[in-house]
Design goal:
It is a single chain. With about 250 residues, the chain is of the alpha/beta class. The chain has a seven-stranded parallel sheet with strand order 3-2-1-4-5-6-7, with helices on both faces. The chain has nine helices and seven strands; from the N terminus they run βαβαβαβαβααβαααβ. It has one domain: Rossmann fold (3-Layer(aba) Sandwich).
Length: about 250
């Protein structure tokens, strides 16, 4: 198995893309630690599913927007598992706010979106950096978004935060080299539970299908496949962004 014996920490790993990555990594032999902030039952369910299939998994609570909680989480992982080989920064938060409605994007919403999506990525990377440096190896995978490239997404703040993730990925690739790599994935529209809560979800799906070269909406497994390749096979790639959107932005 490609990840046998590796220890992977996945933020927001109980649902959606994070869950698909957790299950995919576990199938390849990784010991998977699933971080959650609020979705404890979903994280526990995913962890139990891994264990039922013969894998090793645990859950850990931490708000990634809190530097103190992130540092504590990473310390717990290293103390429990002895090492940390792979970090997937998947935890995210957004609010759907029409871009033309500038006044609706209030300061507290902006700050909340940036706290999880951008500060959280940096805090987690900073916390694992000395661990991976000491080990002499490591892989960091940041989940960005095509919104960070196009400027078109759930809100202006979300687009800006994901653009920041892309920039931070490049900066940290320089900092963590040569011991560890840092790459990012930019998903297009992915069918997860948050989309079901959007009033115009079906319109969004249809518009995406019409524009995408592959004529379908993405699935969490589409992202998990790329994450697995980054974690297991990419030995000479760092600082790169891979767009996974079925050709929507070509």
């Amino acid at each position: 198995m490609k990840l046998a014996g590796k220890v992977a920490l996945i933020t927001g790993g109980g649902t959606g893309i994070g869950r698909a990555i957790a299950l995919g990594f576990a199938r390849e032999g990784a010991n998977v630690i699933i971080n959650y902030s609020k979705s404890e039952s979903e994280a526990a369910k995913t962890s139990r599913e891994i264990q039922a299939s013969g894998g090793q998994s645990s859950i850990v609570k931490a708000d990634v927007s809190s530097d103190q909680q992130v540092r504590s989480m990473v310390s717990q992982v290293v103390e429990s598992w002895g090492r940390l080989d792979i970090l997937v920064n998947n935890a995210g938060f957004t609010r759907f706010i029409d871009h033309v409605n500038l006044e609706a994007l209030e300061e507290d919403i902006w700050d909340s979106i940036f706290a999880v999506n951008l500060k959280g990525v940096f805090f987690c990377c900073r916390a694992v950096a000395p661990v991976m440096k000491k080990q002499g190896s490591g892989r960091v995978i940041n989940i960005a978004s095509v919104a960070g490239i196009t400027g078109n997404g759930s809100s202006i703040a979300y687009c800006a935060a994901k653009a920041g993730v892309i920039s931070v990925t490049k900066s940290l690739a320089r900092v963590l080299a040569p011991e560890a790599s840092v790459n990012a994935i930019a998903p297009g529209l992915i069918d997860t539970r948050w989309l079901d809560g959007v009033a115009r979800a079906e319109t969004m799906r249809q518009n995406f299908r019409n524009a995408a070269l592959f004529k379908r909406v993405g699935t969490p497994d589409d992202i998990a496949e790329v994450a697995l390749s980054m974690a297991a096979d990419w030995g000479f790639v760092t600082g790169q962004l891979v767009v996974v959107d079925g050709g929507r932005t070509v």
